[in-house]
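User: What would this chain look like folded?
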Amino acid sequence: MTLEDDLNSRIFKASCGDFDIRIDRQGKWYYRGSLIGRTRMVGLFATALNRRKDGSYWLTTPIEDGRIEVEDVPFVVIQMWSKGQDYNRSIHFYTNVGDEVTLDKSHPLRIIHNPVTEEPSPYVLVRGGMEARLSRSVYYNLVDLGQEEDTPQGHLYGVWSCGSFFPLGSVAETS
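Assistant: Here's the prediction, encoded as C-alpha cells.
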C-alpha cells in the first residue's frame, strides 16, 4: 500500500447504507425498534444528523455515513419564549435535542393543514434544511402572541418576530 492509498483510506468514510434508526413523529429515537432512552446519546446523534438534497436523512461521522428513517421531521420544539412586544418582538424556540432557534427570515415558520381535519402542523427551520415541528402546547402559546395584520396576501392572523410577520392563518370576515 502506498502512502497515498493509506491517506485516501483514512479520508473517505465508509457508507453503511441504512442504519436501523428511526425518529418518530414525537421526536423519539429508536434503534432496531428499541427506544433510545439516553437523552445525551440522542443529543450526540442529533449533532451528526444531516439532510441531503433528495430529502433523505443521514448520520454522518468522520468514519461512517448511514441513512436513517424520519417519520415527519427530526426535531420537536418543546419550549418557546419571547422578548419585546408587537413589531419589536423576537420569538425563540428550544428543541428536544437542545437546539435553540430564533424565528426570523433565516428560520421561518411554515404551517401545513391536514386536508381532512384542517388541523395545523407548524414547523420552523432549524439548521441544514432540517425542521422542527412545534409541539401542540408551544403552538398554542405562539397563537396567544398573535395579532391581526393587513398584508398583501389578505387580512391575516400571525406573529411578529425579528421584524418579520409570520402568518398563522387567515382571518375570516363575518357579516
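Residues 10 and 167 are 49 Å apart (CA to CA). If you want, I can go into more detail on any region.
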